[in-house]
Amino acid sequence: MSETEKLIKSITDGIQEKKGKGIIIADLNEIDGSIGEYFVICQGNSPAQVNALTESVYEQVLKHTGDKPTSIDGLRNAQWVGMDYSNVLVHIFLPEIRAFYDLEHLWADAKLTRIPDLN
Question: Is the pLDDT of residue 108 over 90?
Fold first, then answer.
């Protein structure tokens, strides 16, 4: 398993640990001018859950890979939090904000992998 694959697995584990929904991994490697190799997109149902998801991703990635994000933006209002792991960008949304920005459609040329929700 490559370092990037371990990073993505740790991110998705962190999301699932706090019951994040609608996880999509967008592979941007074949898209010229993309701002990273992968996006991991998910949602939480409330600002508190968005914050919990952010914290869980941070802890899981640190525990399993030793990596820390270069930046985390959006924690103040917790409607859309972005975590920058250089080659992997994590987007944690509230449902209505996710629907408005529709990153999956914006990056429709990317290979999209949907991770089933845990019950």
Answer: no
